[in-house]
Design goal:
The protein is of the alpha+beta class. It folds into three domains: about 110 residues, Acyl-CoA dehydrogenase/oxidase, N-terminal domain (Butyryl-Coa Dehydrogenase, subunit A, domain 1, Orthogonal Bundle); about 100 residues, Butyryl-CoA Dehydrogenase, subunit A, domain 2 (Beta Barrel), CATH 2.40.110.10; about 160 residues, Butyryl-CoA Dehydrogenase, subunit A, domain 3, CATH 1.20.140. The protein contains twelve helices and seven strands. Strands 2-3-7-6 form a four-stranded antiparallel beta sheet, with no helix packed on it. The chain has a three-stranded mixed beta sheet with strand order 1-4-5, covered by helices on one side. β2 and β3 form a beta hairpin. α1 packs antiparallel against α2 and α6 packs antiparallel against α11. The protein is globular, with a radius of gyration of 21 Å.
């Protein structure tokens, strides 16, 4: 699974990454290759024909793909998150059991709409409601961003449970491509992550009531979406940082070949960057492994609801989102003008711009505020 992803990263994603970034277009070639390799069902449990990948496997896939193209890595991470929400919270439904088999057979790409105009970035709050009548639902949403919505086969969308529910009582709704109409309301001319193609949309949709996930979005968020998002996003940022360091290492090795037997001045700086990348790698792999260890316990789902785990997820998100841009910046300093020029083989301009999105994907300030509140009551035992 990891070997196939690495091949796609180097032979497909990296080849088209510059064009994807320049034109702010979806990385169609990469996802065609992932479909052909049956990798879009990696997170589907084996009992439904999927890869049954654990968090460590999924994070490794995201890292190696992001080394070739960060936008491709982020879309894959977001897709895995949506599949995990279904696989971990909807299997009491025969419909969703069959849907996962369809994901495997057709290699469906699942996008996400959790943002909404008027809630100011609070994904745990919705204004729109899922209106139900005669076994059908109607859901209209005005989204500030919709993750690669035009290019996704299906979408997982948050909404209030019904017209009378408070804004915090949300459900997840699977909106199929045939169920929806999207009207674009914004643009996606961004600094980085340009290939994720996630402008705002007004969505109107209707479908069968069985497409509403059982339970609440609050549970799916706390037990799945937060952990998968923060670990897999961090894995993407690790991929960006690793790619930048590889370019810096190539530069230093080239300098060393010019003066055999003499260690280039920039080699010491590269050694520091290598230590930073190792710290980030250990952090991502460590949290992925700990998640898998927790899920091996009978009490795993409950253990993910503890304050201690919430703090770990907050901390990996903010720390990795701050480390990745610094690593890319350091690589820029090592390489110099060749890294600054967009038409250079050693350019890190795209990597730099992509890494700056990390602190904005759920604002670090918002997360630090939540962490501060948790620390007031948490006792580390």
């Amino acid at each position: 699974m990891i070997h196939r992803t690495r091949s796609i990263a180097s032979e497909v994603a990296a080849v088209h990454a510059v064009d994807v970034d320049a034109r702010a277009r979806f990385p169609h070639e990469t996802f065609a290759a992932l479909r052909e390799a049956k990798l879009l069902s990696a997170a589907v449990p084996k009992e439904f024909g999927g890869g049954g990948a654990d968090m460590r496997d999924l994070s490794s896939m995201c890292t190696v793909l992001a080394q070739g193209c960060a936008s491709s890595g982020m879309v894959l991470a977001m897709h895995h998150i949506q599949v995990a929400c279904i696989a971990r919270h909807a299997l009491s439904s025969k419909f969703f059991q069959n849907y996962l088999r369809e994901v495997v057979d057709r290699q469906l790409l699942i996008g996400s709409i959790t943002s909404e105009v008027g809630v100011w970035g609070d994904t745990r709050s919705s204004i729109c409601a899922c209106l139900r009548e005669n076994g059908r639902f109607k859901l209209d949403k005005d989204a500030t961003t919709a993750s690669y919505a035009e290019h996704a086969d299906d979408l997982l969308v948050t909404a209030r449970r019904n017209g009378d529910a408070p804004q915090s009582d949300q459900v997840l709704v699977l909106v199929r491509k045939a169920d929806r109409t999207l009207t674009q309301t914004g643009t996606w001319d961004t600094m980085g992550m340009r290939g994720t193609c996630s402008p705002g949309f007004k969505m109107t949709s209707t479908g069968a009531e069985e497409q509403i996930l059982p339970g609440s979005f609050a549970d799916a968020s706390a037990q799945t979406m937060v952990s998968y998002s923060h670990i897999l996003w961090s894995a993407v940022w690790l991929g960006i940082a690793s790619d930048a360091m590889a370019r810096a290492a190539a530069f230093v090795r080239a300098e060393a070949r010019k003066t055999p037997g003499v260690v280039p001045p920039k080699a010491t700086h590269l050694a520091r960057v290598s230590a930073q990348v190792q710290m980030l790698r250990n952090s991502v792999r460590g949290q992925a492994s700990e998640f898998d260890e927790i899920m091996a316990r009978p009490t795993g789902m409950e253990d993910l609801l503890t304050i201690g785990w919430a703090l770990k997820m907050n901390n990996i998100k903010v720390s990795s989102s701050e480390m990745a841009p610094q690593i890319v910046h350091d690589a820029l300093q090592i390489i110099g003008i060749a890294a600054y020029k967009n038409d250079s083989k050693l350019s890190v301009g795209r990597q730099y711009r992509d890494s700056l999105s990390a602190a904005l994907m759920i604002s670090n300030d918002r997360i630090f505020g939540k962490t501060a509140s948790l620390l007031l009551v948490y006792k580390d035992e």
